[in-house]
Amino acid sequence: MTDHSEPQLVLVDGSSFLYRAYHALPPLTNSKGVPTGAVYGVASMLRKLLAQYPEADVAVVLDAPGRTFRDDLFAE
User: Fold this and answer.
1) Out of 21, 50, 59, 69, which residue is the most buried by the measure of CB atoms under 10 Å away?
2) Cα distances (angstroms) measured from residue 59 to each of 3, 12, 34
3) What is the pTM for the complete model shown?
């Protein structure tokens, strides 16, 4: 926990959270066989983040459609 008198804003790299959650968990599905692991993982990470910074505003930011800086970093 942190103690700040000024408002805090936590920005989450949503694409990174999704990637980490998808690859960190075993394949999870719902009763109809729809994959749910990435959603479950992201929700778990966000819950932990909200508990760690209870007074902060939190925004999840996703990459825009099309080419991004990640394409240049990871050419494969």
Assistant:
1) 21
2) 20, 6, 27
3) 0.74
Average of per-residue pLDDT across 27-35: 94
Q: Which amino acid is present at 12?
A: V
- Output the six-digit token pair for 75: 């050419």
Q: What's the CA gap between 18 and 38, in Å, rounded?
A: 6
For tokens 């992201």, name the residue. Answer: 42
CA dihedral over 4, 8, 13, 14, signed as positive or negative: positive
Q: What tokens appear for 61 in the block?
A: 């930011």
In the chain, where the domains are located: 13-73
Q: Which helix (H) or strand (E) holds 20?
A: helix 14-24
